[in-house]
User: Fold these one by one.
Assistant:
Number 1:
Amino acid sequence: MVFMATKISSIFEFTNVKCTSLDPKFDKFEYCYLKSVNRSYKYVSIKVNLLKTPVTKVKVIGVLFKRFNGNRPFMYNMSIDACRFLRNPQAYPIAKFFFEFLKYHSNINHSCPFDHPLILDKLPASFVNNQFTKDLPFPGGDYLFESHWIAYDVDRAVVKFYGTLS
């Protein structure tokens, strides 16, 4: 009997990003877009201006969906105190995995309070692809990562990242 080892590789690419402010008196998205530079280079950029600063109490709810006759929850549905997480990311391994996507491309690199605009600058699909396919083997398909940003126990914004893993 002969066994052959093959390397399976997959590619992640963004398909859309949507940002919604649920409280325009608290926050306002200056921009939120997916830019396709060429066939192989796409990136996401987001800037949200906080209108009532400093923000000292933030909670994030993140849900990963996979498309099966509509979007269905897939593997992860987490709620974390963002201020506590940013003080000690090692205490939240799953949240840390998703935060690694943003960490090097954003200014969300310190704990509370937040008293400045929050920026995600040119997060490339290739970086997400590297994290998504090498660290955790996800099955191919269409995915949605939806995050709700809650400040002072009020849902303030929703950010949705859409992508395909093939």
Number 2:
Amino acid sequence: MSLAIGQPAPDFTSKDQDGNPITLSEFRGKKVVLYFYPKDSTPGCTAQACNLRDNYKELTESGYIVLGISPDSEKRHQNFISKNELPFTLISDEDKSVHELYGTWQLKKFMGREYMGTVRTTFIIDEEGKISDIIEKVKTKDHTAQIL
């Protein structure tokens, strides 16, 4: 499934790092940065998370809620958050159901090997729950600038 700008963002309920259910539609009326990333504590994902952390005040002042999502467990998310002092919520999608909804679980190639994995993608969702932007070529060290 391929999502496009202007479409409603698929609603979902999944668990955050503390095991609390998070439902996307709860954030209606706010702008949401929903960013899909491959794995906690890897160099690119850490750079991306830290860039968002370092510019978090600017993002929240612009009215954004930041939600990161990966196939990692709640426990891994807790470790990643405390190690990097992340001020935003991370969603655990171990069964990849949310990845499937957003089309971010795809066949990838790395060093001649093919495997299924997360395609790093950020969806900007407006106050009405519609996709206002899709960032597919994510610059991990400069991601906030891409969002704003």
Number 3:
Amino acid sequence: MTMPLRVLIVEDEMTIALLIEDMVTDMGHEVAGMAMRLPQAVELAETGEFDFAILDVNLDGRRSFPVADVLSARGVPFIFATGYGSAGMEGAYVGQRVIKKPFLASDLENVIRSVA
């Protein structure tokens, strides 16, 4: 087991956010922040203390790339979660690590281990 991480979850669907929260805590990590809309997510990314982030690409019709920009500038590793898989990525984030929804806890754990 790796050291417990402080995780930011950015997901606009409450049931999915809670499912990811359960997965993260079951792995022994701490959910240190959760956001469902882009403005809140950007603010948390700018001010929160995180070791890792899971970003839904589409937040109520808006892309989460500004959140990724902030996390990148702060040196916080992250993955994108999307039902579109790699095909949902654009611009500078093409080729970025993506986990395709729906995913299993074991899939998420493997990705966290490889990125964080």
